[in-house]
Design goal:
110 residues; six-stranded antiparallel barrel; globular
């Protein structure tokens, strides 16, 4: 999910969904702010360090739950309100609910 000077490996769409993420005994809530087939960005002030494996529950429209597993690729924390605090996560495991949801998001925009 790393962005390289304007280049993104996977197209992204803005999407606002509630997310619960866990690593070890730590569980926090955040807001998913963008989505691709291979990764997500969760806005939070409780980001984990890069390399951390996280379990994620997304609350999709119609209150469907999606369970994911990923690895934190980047984490941003800054006191500037204009800057997005959060984590870029590369997805390692995706359920069918997530795969179908991402397909519907991308189909709706094309």
């Amino acid at each position: 999910m790393e962005r390289q000077r304007g280049y993104q490996r996977h197209p992204r769409r803005l999407k606002r969904l509630e997310a619960v993420f866990t690593s070890g005994d730590l569980t926090y809530r955040g807001i998913l702010s963008d989505i691709s087939s291979n990764g997500i960005f969760i806005r939070t002030n409780r980001g984990f360090t890069p390399g951390t494996i996280v379990s994620i529950q997304l609350i999709l429209p119609n209150n469907q739950l999606s369970s994911l597993k990923g690895i934190v690729r980047r984490s941003t924390k800054t006191p500037l309100a204009a800057q997005k605090n959060g984590m870029g996560i590369e997805l390692l495991e995706k359920d069918k609910t997530f795969i179908d949801f991402v397909a519907s998001v991308f189909e709706a925009r094309e």
